[in-house]
Structure formats: structure tokens, C-alpha cells
Amino acid sequence: MRMYDVIMKKRNGGVLTEEEIREVISGYVAGEIPDYQMSAFLMAVYFQGMTEEETVAMTEAVAHSGDMVDLSAIAGIKVDKHSTGGVGDKTSLIIGPIVAACGVKVAKMSGRGLGHTGGTVDKMEAIPGMRTDLSREEFFRVVNQTGLSIIGQTGNLAPADKKLYALRDVTATVDSIPLIAVSIMSKKLAAGSDAILLDVKTGSGAFMKTLEDSIALAKEMVSIGENAGRKTAALITDMDIPLGNNIGNSLEVMEAVETLKGNGPADLTEVCIHLAGNMLYLAGKGTIEECMALAKAKIEDGSALERLAAMVEAQGGDASVILDPSRFAKAPYSMQVFAEKEGYIGAMDTEGCGIASSMLGAGRQTKDSAIDPAAGIVLKRKVGDYVTKEDVIAVLYTSDSSLLEQAQKKYVSSVRIQVEAPKKEPLIYARVT
Ligand code: URA
């Protein structure tokens, strides 16, 4: 196979064979195909797309470029969940414990923040002492002992994706539906769970800004999962408004705890009940309605919160902050943000809100910069609320006071205030199977 011929075939709209795709991926990982040819190939895929068969073949090739985790040492059905990324999305910390409390195992590998979106691993590391780099044996032990464990991706999980993602990031080829599907599903297949629930976010804070694109991505990922013999479903959920009220790492852990105590914001609680219900459904625990009722019951009886505390303790974290979140270290500086004018909050540029939080130190400005775990934003008013110029719409937190002014400007410019009340949008748009 000549890489030149493969690039030309794809550029001209041809369909690649499974063997050609396998050779492209293995050649790239082995360093035999240079970045410039791979970049041209990715751009050809960006414009020409890929058939379902090509996408499945590329996902399998990327998944098999590293370890395929064997979870058989953990008894019972293992269910995974993946969010395509959002702002204020702390659902893994809530639904993992709920599902575990229902007797279904969750052995989950999560990522760090990407762009304006937060990552579960960064949130977990806001808990003092918490380890996310467990060895395979420790990971299995924690899942067997507590029903769940959430760790960072191990080095050799889909290494081709790591290399490809870095290249896509600098060649304007990230926002391609087949390439995103390959990237996400290769990691999910390699991570070894029997069933996979995908939370495909849609709206101004998501990578997919339109419902149409979100559904197309969900369909593509579900088809890859089912082709690989995993039970797979997707929910399309709203990311046009930040989820819940807290953005930032320890702030999000605190809100996850409140939600597990039954005191969480209504939007976050509802999305979590749907996600947990659908994970339990994939694990065969009943109808979706029964599974959602089961999920609610595990919040009400406190058993889901106990699971979170047990996981934190088993991974070396200080579980006392879970039982009493007021023990989290507070950011030394804060600033109230007032409404610019009177009216209804009509829309929020959720990506802008995520960027404002990141500017306060909750995200990384460069690949290697450190996270400020206490930094972030607490939303006091959201879309649909009527505000006057005296109303505080948000409070910013940071450990570096010099960051407040710019972040305040960014946040204010992300909130649109208008005369008429906005239309209420759904939290869950669709279920794709
Ligand atoms: N998340 C991923 O893991 N990969 C993508 O390509 C986009 C979001």
C-alpha cells in the first residue's frame, strides 16, 4: 500500500478497504507514515466523510493499536458512560455511584479537560489525596470492593488516538463526525465494558452545536458499538446552558455531592436520573421507567452517596470532604458579577462560560499548566430568569486575583439579556439506539 494512493482515493471520494485502513493506522503508529501524509488523509476524510464500514474498520484499528482491557476479573455486567464534553458536566461523579448502588459495576476510564470543557479526572483530583493513576490490579480491586472506580486513561489505551488527536488539533480536523466517532469509540471499546451509554451533548457549550449533527454523531457511535458486540445507546442532552450551577473542579464535586444528597439543581438531577436509568436499562435491570425509579431511590436512601465516599476512600482520597463538602479548600478571591441590564436571561454562550472558568484557573491555558482546583464559577441566575442591574448573576472564584477582571468580562459577554422571556428548551432531546 502506498500512502499517496490511499490519500488520493479518499480525496476523490473512494471507499477504503478494511486492510487499507488497518495499514494506515499501524503505519502511522509505527512512525512509517509521516504527519504530513496523515494530515492530508485526515483532511480528505474531513471533506469526503467515511462509510459506516470504513468508520467501524478505523475504530477497530485504532482500538487495537494498544491494550484491549479485559474486565473479566470483575464479576457481572460492566457498564460505561461517555459524555462528548460540556460545561458543568459532573454527571459521571453522580451516576457512577448510583449505578454501582444498584449492583451494576462501573469500571470507568475518564479524561482531563479539553478546550473549554471540564474533565472528570481533573474534578476527582480536586479531592485531597485522590489517586486516578491506579494500576490495573488496584483498579479491579476497587471495582470489586466498591462497585465502581474512575481512573485516568492508562498510557497504552488506543495510542493511535492520542497521536491522531494531537494532529487533528493542529490541522483543523477535530470537528469531523466520523473522526470524533472513531476517537471516542476506539477508547470505549479498548476500555472493555459490556455496555456503553453515550451522552451526546448538543448546543453552544458542546462540540456539536446543532441537534442534527449531534444525532448523526450518536447514530455513528451506536452503530460502531453494536458492530463490536457491545450494547450501546445514546442520549442527546442539552448543553446550550451550563449543566447545574457550579463550573470548576472542587465546585463541581461539591455540587455532585449535593445532588447525591437529593439537594442538587433540578436540571442536573433530571439529566443524571435519565443517564443512570439508561445505564441500568442496558445492564438489564428493567424497563427504562423502572430503572429511572431505581436510580431515584438510590439517591433517596443515601446509598449512592455512600458509594462515592467508598470509592474516594479506596482510591486514597479524603472521604470526609465528600460527607462534608464545606471542608474543601476555598478560593481566596471571589467577585460578584452583576447583570448588565434589566430583562430576561435569554441565552448563554456556554462555551464562553467554560472559557471564563478556565481563565480563572479551572482549566489549562497550555498543555502543561497546573489546574487551580478551587477556581470556577457559581451561577446564581440562568436562562429564563428575570434580572435587574442589582442582581448578582454569578460569583467567580480564583486563587489569583489578577485573573478576575478578564474572566468577569468574558462571563458578562457570554450572557444575553433580552426583553422577552425565552422559550424553554428540553434537557433530553432524543434517545438513539
Ligand atoms: N472527545 C474525544 O475523545 N475525541 C474527539 O475527537 C472529540 C471529543
From TrEMBL:
Catalytic activity: 2'-deoxyuridine + phosphate = 2-deoxy-alpha-D-ribose 1-phosphate + uracil; thymidine + phosphate = 2-deoxy-alpha-D-ribose 1-phosphate + thymine; uridine + phosphate = alpha-D-ribose 1-phosphate + uracil
Entry keyword set: Glycosyltransferase, Transferase
GO cellular component assignments: cytosol
GO terms assigned for molecular function: 1,4-alpha-oligoglucan phosphorylase activity; thymidine phosphorylase activity
GO biological process entries: pyrimidine nucleobase metabolic process; pyrimidine nucleoside metabolic process
Documented EC number(s): 2.4.2.2
Domain Pyrimidine nucleoside phosphorylase C-terminal span(s) in chain numbering: 344-418
InterPro entries documented for this protein: Glycosyl_Trfase_fam3 (IPR000312), Glycosyl_Trfase_fam3_N_dom (IPR017459), Glycosyl_Trfase_fam3_N_dom_sf (IPR036320), Nuc_phospho_transferase (IPR035902), PYNP-like_C_sf (IPR036566), PYNP_C (IPR013102), Pyrmidine_PPas_bac/euk (IPR018090), Pyrmidine_PPase_CS (IPR017872)
One Pfam family from the record: Glycos_trans_3N
Subunit architecture: Homodimer.
NCBIfam families: PRK05820.1, PRK06078.1, Y_phosphoryl
Protein role: Catalyzes phosphorolysis of the pyrimidine nucleosides uridine, thymidine and 2'-deoxyuridine with the formation of the corresponding pyrimidine base and ribose-1-phosphate.
Family, per entry: Belongs to the thymidine/pyrimidine-nucleoside phosphorylase family.
Name assigned to this protein: Pyrimidine-nucleoside phosphorylase
Lineage: Bacteria, Bacillati, Bacillota, Clostridia, Lachnospirales
